[in-house]
């Protein structure tokens, strides 16, 4: 019981660090992985949790979609947070990483 609890707290701490970083501005998974000393896969895992839980704290995870550097194709339809391997239009592999930011809602009314 105690061990499980500790693990939960540690995970929560990483997530809190990540959320704090994201609240200051855009960050890529690579940057978060270096900052928190965890693998990128783990970063995406935490990001998904943050995305789900953010509304409870009055915020929301904003995702800037990946963009193909060759033709400018924007990977908007891609619902996932992870970086795509290659561009469906030009097959280019120079894909700009998606960026993440934590925004605080409240205040102004926004449509959409
Ligand atoms: Zn392309």
Describe this entry's structure for a reader.
There is one protein chain. The chain is globular and about 40 Å long. The chain is of the alpha+beta class. The chain is built from three helices and five strands. The protein has one domain: Arc Repressor Mutant, subunit A, CATH 1.10.10. The strands form two sheets. It has a three-stranded antiparallel β-sheet with strand order 1-5-2. A two-stranded antiparallel ribbon has the order 3-4.
Q: Uncertain segments of ≥5 residues (pLDDT<50)? A: 108-112
Widest sheet, order of strands: 1-5-2
The main sheet comes to: 3 strands, antiparallel
Oligomeric state of shown chains: single chain
Query: What ligands can be seen in this structure?
Result: zinc ion
Keywords:
single chain; 112 residues; alpha+beta; 3-stranded antiparallel beta sheet; two-stranded antiparallel ribbon; 3 helices; binds zinc ion
């Amino acid at each position: 019981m105690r061990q499980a609890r500790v693990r939960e707290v540690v995970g929560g701490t990483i997530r809190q660090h990540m959320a704090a970083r994201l609240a200051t501005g855009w960050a890529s998974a690579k940057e978060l992985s270096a900052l928190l000393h965890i693998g990128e896969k783990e970063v995406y895992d935490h990001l998904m949790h943050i995305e789900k839980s953010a509304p409870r704290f009055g915020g929301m995870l904003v995702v800037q979609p990946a963009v193909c550097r060759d033709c400018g194709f924007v990977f908007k339809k891609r619902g996932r947070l992870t970086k795509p391997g290659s561009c469906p239009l030009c097959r280019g592999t120079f894909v700009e990483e998606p960026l993440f930011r934590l925004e605080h809602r409240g205040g102004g009314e926004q449509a959409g």
